[in-house]
Amino acid sequence: MDVKQYEQFNETSYQTKLTNGLTVTMLPKAGYHKTYAVLTTNYGSIDNTFVPAGETELRRFPDGIAHFLEHKMFEKADHDAFQTFGQYGANANAFTSFTRTSYLFSATRNLRENLETLLDFVQDPYFSKQTVEKEKGIIGQEIEMYNDDPSWRLYFGMIGNLYPNHPLQYDIAGTTESIAKITADDLYAAYRTFYHPENMTLFVVGKLDPDEVLEWINNNQAKKHFDAFQPIERKLPATITDGHDIIPYRMINMPVNRAKTVVGVKGLAPVEVGLSALKYRAGVNVLLELLFGDTSQNYLKLYDQGVIDDTFGYDFELQNGFNFLTFSGETNEPAQFDAAIIAGLENWTQAVDGQENLLAMIKKEMIGRVVFMANSLEAVANRYDQQLFGNRTLFDEPAIIASLTLADIQAIARELLTSQAISEYQIQPVTKG
Amino acid sequence: MQVQLAKGVQLTTVTSHQFKTNQIIVNFRAPLRRDEITKRALITNLLETSSADYPDQRALAHALANMYGAAFGAGVSRKGPTHSLQLAITVPNERYLDTDDALTASAIQFLQNIIYRPLVKDSQFDQATFDRQVINLKASIESVTDDKQYYAAQKLNEALFDGMPAQQIPSYGVTTDLASINARDLYAYYQRVLARDQIDIIVVGDVDVDDVTARWQAVGFTDRPTDQLAPFFKHQNLGRYVEIQERQDLSQAKLNLGYDLPVFYRGEHYYAALVFNELFGGSPLSKLFMNVREKASLAYYASSSLDTFRGVMKVQAGIDGHKHDQVLAIIDEQLTAIKHGDFTDDLMAQIKLGLINDFESSLDSQRTFAIQALIDDLTKRTITDDDWLQQIQAVTREQVQAVAQLVTLNNGFFLNGGGQ
User: Fold this and answer.
1) Is A70 among the catalytic positions?
2) Which of B252, B285, B366 to mutate to probe the A interface, most A CBs <10 Å?
3) Which of A47, A121, A417, B176 reaches 20 to 30 Å from B199, CA-CA?
């Protein structure tokens, strides 16, 4: 077991890879009542074309299959995993993102039983024609609910602009039409391909004893057989590095009170996984704060002019294989909002050059935020992403933030903030007739 | 530890080594009055974005960033017949940072600056800041209706408290009030808040109690006119079902139901009502979740919640608009089943274990301690963690059935799809 001490934070992480390939990380938190565990597979909504385990040819699967599989994992021949967690007093949940599917529970009691329930239900698939058909109604409702949500439509509208030829543009849950095609056989094929322990990680944080927990996990895994891992072949379109495929502008009407708008920037250059990805994310977050954070000159100016208000926000999404920025808000004048953001991006040097003092302050703020996240078991666990950052945890971040220089930020900005990577998407109110 | 700083002004310090941050909350509590709600919401917007020491948002943001990203916020809320205006700041504990700054002391000073040195000229809030925040509050209130789940909940609340405007309107106010509020009158009202509202100051973390106490004593708080407010507002049972329907351009319909349930916080039937709610619609093991969502596939979500400061229960469901009658019937069947004791002992035990899990989990959140201290001060019904657990364990099937008998469906709000 690898033991890593984070002395400044009075925290220790314990990590090991089991003989079946599963990577296990544990982080005990003194004084906590609860334990949070999350079991993740490197399989998300964009993985819709792959060579299924035991086959040799690429196959295209219906959009939304990773999310559908996540829903169906809970249901077994004679019980529902939610109920088993319920018997042990745990809260259970699951979520699917573009690149990952995670199953989790939190509990203050019966940790061993809950851990075994988590491993057992995710490692024992059961799909039947009948249960698959029933699920289509439940997920159909979920898709409809998101269709009514303007913020969701805005986000996916922008992704559609930036990635018009990439599965990223599809709703994580798929569409009513695409999920109608999903069969139990499809689910088994996806399961066998992506749910091998070698492609999965388990992160446990909170009230726990690492030696005891590892022994429980080892005993549980020893009872199960897994075939030899077959490296996964997935097909994803390559990023077009000059950005010529980006749709520069689209607009839709919805029954909203105020217009919503988003400016997006597609990261055209690849980001290397591992330490450099973690450093890149921190650097981009510093850059965003310098450009449009509430400590910036731009923010105050635009706020006082009424161009942006408290609904303004920005986000950097970094995943294995793609990254993009979004700046969004509600406004009565979306064109004015977009123009102001784009001007701020194109004139980034004005907000960055010579701002050593502001950089020092922003670094303090970001390091402080790590201390905040250290309080939350969920934040500690969900910040971990082995696929993207290797075996680093939240507590590796302060040293990385501290190392950033203004030259690092300038280098990121020069590459990332190019005009051909920028796009706009707006939701305008329906004109009342 | 608790110190009375003046009549109606209390400082509660909860020392804990569990968290890596320290949290300070100042809560102003007053009787809920229809005419004051929007004013109080606007005051929080003003205090959150400006003060004499930090005249604009950038200056304020710099002060917070320099305290290692301190999180500062202000907000309003309703509890029964009371309204709270609250300011909160959380700072990292400096022992986890490379700094000699006394961050907790700085954070207390910051809050005091915000509260006692607002951005004021000639006895009125700074006009430009005031105008900007009126526009922003108006926009944010209007945007709430874009969230259909929230909109339906708000419409149900209006129906449940028909004829009682202070209970009907949202705790963050209504846009129609804004035109009649000006910067001078609002500042005068704020002076009344400072002088008359009950104040709770809550500090949670690994702090020096004597130092914290001295810093708040230095403010020189004056006595309030009263030191105890009525904690509960009793909903009037209509005795029959009235449903309001509305159509909008939506793909998923919303059905929200309001029930009279005269059970109050830590009063008679309280613990049985907690178990009842978890069993009815408050958890993934509940009747609503299992039967309406899972078994019958009638809804994407269906859940219940209690408001034990007003004596009501609410159900919210996202459904297919054509299935309105079916959903209404199946929700009623679940209630009838509980009245008749149609649930297993195993399920009852699991429901209790779930409640206990949620309770113990909440002890891992710094904010829980502050929220509990505020409720304790309002209700004066304090119990230990062990007593809470014992009370839940002691709830019987018969007690849960008895609570179900107290429930009366009163109001419904149905937001259907299909346009105007």
Assistant:
1) yes
2) B252
3) B176
